[in-house]
Amino acid sequence: MLKITYLSHSSFLLDDGTHQLVIDPFLTGNPNSPVKVSDIKAKFTVLTHAHGDHLGDGLTIEKGCKAHNMHIGGGRNFEFGRLKFTIAHHGSATQDGRYMGAPAGVIIKMGGKTVYHTGDTGLFLDMKLVGEIDKIDALFVPIGDNFTMGIDDAVRAVEFVNPELTVPMHYNTFPVIQADPEVFKSKLSANEKDCRVMKYGESITL
Ligand code: NI
Ligand code: MN
Known about the structure:
Structural class: alpha/beta
Distance between the termini: 6 Å
CATH architecture: 4-Layer Sandwich
Largest sheet: 6 strands, mixed
Number of domains: 1
Order of helices and strands: EEEEHHEEEEHEHEHE
Oligomer: single chain
Strand order of the largest sheet: 5-6-7-8-9-10
CATH class: Alpha Beta
Shape: globular
Mean pLDDT: 95
Low-confidence stretches: none
Number of strands: 11
CATH superfamily: Ribonuclease Z/Hydroxyacylglutathione hydrolase-like
Bound molecules: nickel (II) ion, manganese (II) ion
């Protein structure tokens, strides 16, 4: 069992009933966040890259916690399950230009399910490999364009990964990434893919 809660933008909370893990917790300063940083009780935090809309409150949440460094292509078993990082075609510097490592996507095996959060990225053909190596139960894919894939490239990403369920992310938070998730969904249904446009704070259980 894996419960997925959408915290808006690219942030998700995963809960297998025992462990909670938060991905890219951009909550403070995010007008769409349904929760405050103090509401987050997750013991584990996964960050895809260092841009403010992903790193977000990550350092606050992690204060006093142990950090574990990983890199692209590497996987590791943790108490909650397994993490493996994938490439992402994007940047990862801070606003003042400091290098903060390579951006990434992440495959998370937890609660008997496998989810793939692509991070911020453009479309890339190797996404096919991700879908070949693991059966992806849920794919979190950006559709907002400008900084990441837009709707049409995201449709191709879904075809590459072939997940059981797709959840669009990284749209409508800022004026420059306006996108209609229903348009994305309608383009997918032609391919008979299951897509769920999640509301802020909404949960689904796989
Ligand atoms: Ni970014
Ligand atoms: Mn971003």
